[in-house]
Specification:
Chain lengths: 267, 404
């Protein structure tokens, strides 16, 4: 059974007086354990697809089955619960809460996880485990403005992992990162995909980033133009090893001014 | 999501911007503090009046000679000469009446040795000390025999005694001259202070009312009768007295009363009413600052919602329901207003204490003030926090995440 299955997905919305037909009938299945790269030019509908996949939006018509359940007609609150438990989001802009430690940021989804039944110690333990999975256990008590861009994105990935979702939706996760850091982040995705079998849907408009996945889907004008397996898949771990030891790339990204600022946070 | 969790999220969010939180709170602190201080001031004034009323004797009923008309010309209160000693005797038999003292007043120069003083001469009866709960501090009050015989005996108010003999001198047994007639001083009254109407109660000389009528004024009628009811429920007794007097004065149903019966409550009510109006006015003005504080909260919460649009978007994306976001912002507003209210109560207590000490204004904080202030603060938080919170909850997660 596919994790994601959409049939005749149509999404139309109006901007002012213009009717935008963002998706014009998309049929697509994503099997468990796939690493799907979705590409396409701006306005091709890939972001809209991502929002529907992420249960942030509902299709105008058509069906969306997530883990076999039809979510296209769910209520807003039901969708919120689905987002909380089944889907992990990673955004281009990291979207970490400023003046909030990495640990607290990672814990955040747990607060919306069914009435805070978890004890503080248990939340703590799980958040530390998630941070450990992205090799940031030693930065748990740092604030976002004390972390480099790559580290912030890794905190965001840890946050997406906390509720053990079946899918991670990553929307241009490397858009704000330099090449080496991008490869590091993609390496984490590849590892999570391989070791934990987490399905990953990666949205990018860079062709070389897309090649880290197992399957390429190219959108054009609201329709799937290309859907093919990636034959020459890139391996982030190998590439990193091959790169010259750029020792402190991360540290170089840390703002020179250590004084707290609002950078790197959403609030 | 549990309310404790919401509270924790809200407190964390407020902690992230401490200065702003404190400044917003300041509006609440000043508002609540002002309301409490003003109410305390009003209550203080009111309880001062109540104390004065109590010291005058709570069960007291006053009967004054009323107005009468002479050829269509109304002569005004106290001009009637129809209040008689027999009326006082009749009132003694009215149900619920405990003490009765007929009153006949005068004014005059009082001479003792080389000192003299002009004061009020209050002719009264032996029940007077019990009606007013006011007794001599030295010597004794006059006896029924003194009243019957219209003896020239006097009990001095403390101011009169001090003026004529100086403080620390007991003039009991001395002879004074009132309007050139010798009176024997048989006692000095305890010091009483101001009455509810602001009159100095100690500037007075008491003699039997019969003495005033026969020896000083040569009149047949009384000026007033003072009565003490057996219980604090004076209104029915006052009514019974009125009816007795109407029969006594042979008034038919069309005739107006030629006397006035007033309970102490009636007399105190007027002043209490004035004070209450002042209190309400002061509290209303203070309430405006509470309102301004509330608007301040709304303003900051609206700014906060806009500023934290992406945070809201993120929270929605990771599984917060609209309801959770609404609650979070509402709870933030309530935390600000309740905590501000709490500090405001402290400020109110401080202000009241300060007014009492520095300005010597009596203040008294009503026992329900804390609950009231807290209630007001919470209501302000909910009322002014709801709109921004709803605005936050209604954000579209996609739009919110894109917000720059």
């Amino acid at each position: 059974m596919p994790v994601i299955s959409v049939r005749s997905l149509v999404k139309t919305y109006t901007v002012g007086e213009v009717i935008v037909r963002a998706l014009r009938g998309v049929d697509m299945d994503v099997e468990a354990g796939e690493f799907v790269s979705v590409t396409g030019p701006s306005g091709s509908g890939k972001s809209t697809l991502m929002h529907i996949f992420g249960c942030l939006d509902r299709p105008t018509s058509g069906q969306y089955f997530l883990d076999g359940k039809d979510v296209s007609r769910m209520s807003k609150d039901e969708l919120a619960a689905v987002r909380n438990k089944k889907i992990g989001f990673v955004f281009q802009g990291f979207n970490l809460l400023s003046r909030t430690t990495a640990l607290d940021n990672v814990e955040l989804p747990l607060l919306y996880n069914g009435g805070g039944k978890l004890k503080a110690a248990e939340r703590h333990r799980r958040a530390m485990a998630a941070l450990g999975a992205v090799n940031l256990g030693d930065r748990a008590h740092h604030y976002p403005n004390q972390l480099s861009g790559g580290q912030q994105q890794r905190v965001a990935i840890a946050r997406s992992l906390i509720n053990e979702p079946s899918i991670i939706l990553a929307d241009e996760p490397t858009g704000n990162l330099d090449t080496r850091t991008s490869i590091e982040v993609l390496g984490i995705f590849q590892r999570l995909n391989k070791e934990r079998g987490i399905t990953i849907v990666l949205i990018t408009h860079e062709h070389d980033i897309a090649e880290y996945g197992t399957r390429l889907i190219r959108f054009r004008d609201g329709r799937i133009q290309v859907d093919s397996p990636i034959t020459r898949r890139r391996d982030a771990e190998e590439e990193l090893a091959a790169l010259p030891p750029a020792d402190d790339v991360d540290d170089a990204n840390i703002p020179a001014d250590p004084a707290p600022s609002d950078h790197g946070g959403v609030a | 999501m549990s309310i404790i969790m919401t509270l924790r999220i809200a407190v964390k969010a407020l902690n992230r911007n401490k200065l702003r939180t404190v400044l917003t709170m300041l509006g609440m602190i000043i508002g609540v503090g002002a309301v409490i201080a003003m109410v305390a001031l009003g209550r203080g004034a009111q309880s001062t009046i109540e104390e004065q009323v109590k010291s005058a004797g709570t069960n007291m009923i006053n009967i004054n000679a009323g107005n009468f008309s002479m050829g269509g010309v109304r002569q005004g209160q106290g001009m009637s000469t129809r209040l008689m000693p027999e009326d006082a005797e009749a009132i003694r038999d009215v149900q619920g009446v405990q003490y009765v003292a007929a009153g006949s007043n005068s004014r005059g120069q009082i001479i003792a040795g080389n000192q003299n003083w002009n004061t009020r001469i209050e002719g009264t009866d032996v029940d007077f000390p019990y009606i007013r709960n006011w007794h001599p501090k030295s010597g004794s009050f006059f006896t029924p025999h003194d009243v019957r015989a219209a003896q020239k005996v006097a009990v001095l108010g403390s101011i009169v005694a001090d003026t004529l003999y100086g403080p620390d001198v007991d003039p009991t047994g001395e002879i004074i001259r009132i309007r050139n007639q010798p009176f024997r001083v048989i006692g000095v009254m305890a010091t009483r202070g101001q009455s509810a109407t602001g009159q100095d109660q100690d500037d007075v000389v008491f003699t039997p009312y019969t003495t005033v009528m026969k020896k000083l004024e040569g009149r047949q009628h009384l000026n007033s009768i003072t009565v003490s009811a057996a219980t604090a429920d004076t209104a029915p007794v006052a009514e019974a007295i009125r009816e007795t007097l109407r029969i006594q004065h042979k008034l038919t149903s069309g005739d107006p009363d030629d006397f006035m019966v007033r309970t102490l409550e009636d007399m105190a009510n007027l002043r209490t009413e004035t004070t209450r109006t002042m209190t309400t006015l002061l509290a209303a003005i203070a309430g405006v600052s509470l309102l301004v504080g509330g608007i301040g909260i709304m303003n900051i919460m609206l700014v906060s919602v806009t500023e934290r649009t992406r945070e809201i978007g993120l929270r929605l994306a990771i599984g917060a329901r609209s309801k959770d976001v609404l609650l979070q912002f509402l709870v933030e507003a309530i935390v600000i207003s309740l905590f501000g209210g709490l500090l405001g109560i402290a400020l109110g207590f401080g202000l009241s204490e300060g007014m009492e000490r520095m300005l010597e204004w009596p203040t008294s904080i009503p026992t329900n003030a804390i609950g009231m202030a807290f209630g007001f603060a919470a209501a302000t938080g909910v009322f002014f926090g709801f709109y921004p919170a709803r605005k936050a909850a209604q954000l579209d997660p996609i739009e919110a995440l894109r917000f720059e």
